[in-house]
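Today's session is about reading a structure prediction critically. Students often jump straight to the picture, but the first step is always the sequence itself: look for stretches that repeat, for charged clusters, for runs of hydrophobic residues. Only then move on to the predicted structure, which in these notes is written as discrete structure tokens rather than atom positions. Here is the chain we will use throughout the hour.
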Amino acid sequence: MKMGLEYVTVIVDEYDPAIEFFTEALGFELVEDSPALTSAEGRPKRWVVVRPPGGGTGLLLARADGERQAAAVGDQMAGRVGFFLRVDDFDRAYARMVEAGVRFVGEPRSEPYGRVAVFLDIAGNRWDLLG
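Below is the predicted structure for this chain, in token form.
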């Protein structure tokens, strides 16, 4: 039996700035942006999916709905790195992201598993850029 992790949700404040961050700053593809409704209350929302070029697991960008979700924006992993973006050319990706205004929280370093630098997404979640 073949399985794959299709989506991971990232809670954001607003859709459009999040789409811009992931597509412009990180270079992801916008896979889908469709109108939808909340399941219980029927309030309008959007189904927004972005993913790294070439496929793989998509990110479902979900606008916070209510106080509990709003409190989780930027802290989905309780301050830990919770997302890992592997690139084939670390130096090129790092330079492009810095130029695009992505906020890194430290200098790149070498680890046994490759080059790594921690950055924050638009919501404030911590990511590892891996090369």
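Discussion point for the tutorial: The CA atoms of residues 49 and 60 lie 5 Å apart.
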